[in-house]
Write a sequence for this structure.
């Protein structure tokens, strides 16, 4: 009985999520140290955050996982999507149907012959 009460108490003290700085590879440092973190994301998208990124760490029944990183405001409108790398490559999907790849615009109207 007392063991289960201690376990419940320790779990209640831990926040549901924590911000931690990535320290390279699959590791991060926050209130605690995280190693061999899996990175959760949409299916088909794999990523490795750069060092010092602010990672969001959550606890799951299978262990801790990084569910994303905080990103600076990039001026996106609601509904738009921007994929980018730390090296500068960008793929921007705009609400008007345009696709911008590394600054080159591919418009829906041009593709449809309008």
């Amino acid at each position: 009985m007392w063991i289960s009460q201690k376990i419940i108490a320790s779990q209640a003290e831990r926040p549901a999520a924590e911000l931690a700085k990535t320290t390279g590879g699959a590791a991060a440092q926050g209130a605690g140290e995280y190693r061999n973190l899996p990175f959760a994301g949409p299916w088909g998208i794999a990523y490795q955050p750069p060092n010092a990124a602010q990672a969001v760490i959550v606890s799951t029944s299978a262990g801790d996982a990084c569910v994303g990183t905080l990103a600076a405001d990039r001026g996106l409108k609601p509904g738009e999507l921007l994929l980018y790398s730390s090296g500068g490559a960008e793929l921007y999907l705009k609400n008007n149907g345009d696709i911008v790849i590394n600054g080159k615009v591919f418009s829906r109207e041009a593709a449809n012959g309008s």
